[in-house]
Write a structure and sequence with these properties.
Bacteriocin As-48, Chain A; 8 strands
């Protein structure tokens, strides 16, 4: 079995800067971008390239990992028009978001709440599929449902029958949020019910987690989110390769910081670094020490100096 590993979209965390940094570590086959919100207008190219700057690099991260661009919305026609414009920019595919649990998104009829309307889900996928070139992958990501998983198979069939090429399933409902566990056995139910490839997602933090997820879901592909952010070597470990040491990762923290400094306002930069370190300390004791050192520091110059010291 050839294991495929995808890097998840995580709004406010796993953006262009972290995609760049994590794909430099290696082991990832494909990234999916954080969502581009589609409402009632055709967006200009600059909006797509702002969220997915890899579109200016042949649809790949600087390390050469392909990036699929994700759209979120509820209007099939408007999503289709925007998908056509986006496809012309050359992403590695277009993904549709039926999984976001954020209340703000859900209140505006986006993300996981759409799973209460399988017919609308079908119309969205079908409209986007028709709007983009045949050779371009159109995938979707869904949770098991909104409040419960009663419509789980209805949604999976809606997505598959509308022409999607792949389905990522996060093994929790919106109601579950990110609370463990993830119900990988429910992903298996979906996988056996449809004919398109299914990717398992949710609560994979370690190699042991991944092995259980693959066994319970029956999938041969995983999407890694927080687990990969906490352990950048996880994809390599899943391939039986050596994980990078902290000494190898520390320069990448500095690289990430320098990228963030180019696009994020000074008052928010330290927060982005602390957010990543907060997850990294689950796996690396050195990350805990660095987190403690920067926890109360917000001045970018001081943070940069601490990171430079750690990278030496």
């Amino acid at each position: 079995m050839t294991l495929r590993l995808l890097l998840a979209p995580m709004e406010g965390l796993l953006d262009q800067h972290l995609r760049d940094t994590l794909t430099q570590v290696g082991g990832v086959d494909l990234c999916v971008s954080e969502f581009i919100r589609i409402t009632d207008q055709l967006l200009p190219n600059r909006v797509f390239t702002r969220v997915v700057p890899e579109l200016l690099n042949g649809g790949c991260t600087p390390a050469g990992t392909p990036v699929r661009a994700q759209l979120l919305g509820s209007d099939p026609a408007c999503l289709a028009d925007n998908a056509a414009r986006l496809a012309a920019l050359g992403p590695a595919g277009i993904d549709l978001n039926f999984g976001c649990p954020a209340p703000t998104v859900n209140r505006h009829r986006g993300g996981a709440v759409l799973l209460d309307e399988p017919e609308l889900v079908h119309r969205i996928v079908a409209a986007v599929r028709r709007a983009v070139p045949v050779a371009m992958p159109v995938s979707a990501k869904m949770r098991l449902g909104n409040q419960d998983d009663a419509l789980m198979l209805d949604n999976a069939h809606a997505i598959a029958s509308a022409g999607a090429t792949e389905l990522v399933v996060h093994g929790r409902t919106k109601q579950h949020g990110y609370r463990p566990p993830a119900y990988w056995d429910r992903i298996a139910t979906i996988r056996t019910a449809i004919t398109i490839p299914v990717v398992a997602n949710g609560e994979v933090w370690t190699v042991a987690d991944a092995q259980r997820c693959l066994a319970e879901s029956g999938c041969d592909a995983l999407m890694l989110g927080r687990g990969m952010v906490a352990d950048p070597g996880l994809a390599l470990a899943l391939r039986g390769l050596s994980e990078p040491t902290w000494q190898a990762l520390a320069p990448l923290l500095l690289h990430f910081w320098q990228r963030v400094a180019g696009t994020v306002a000074p008052r928010h930069r330290a927060g982005r670094l602390k957010q990543w370190l907060n997850l990294l300390r689950r796996r690396h004791d050195e990350a805990q020490r660095l987190y403690d050192a920067v926890r109360t520091v917000n001045d970018p110059a001081q943070v940069g100096a601490l990171l430079s010291g750690a990278a030496r």
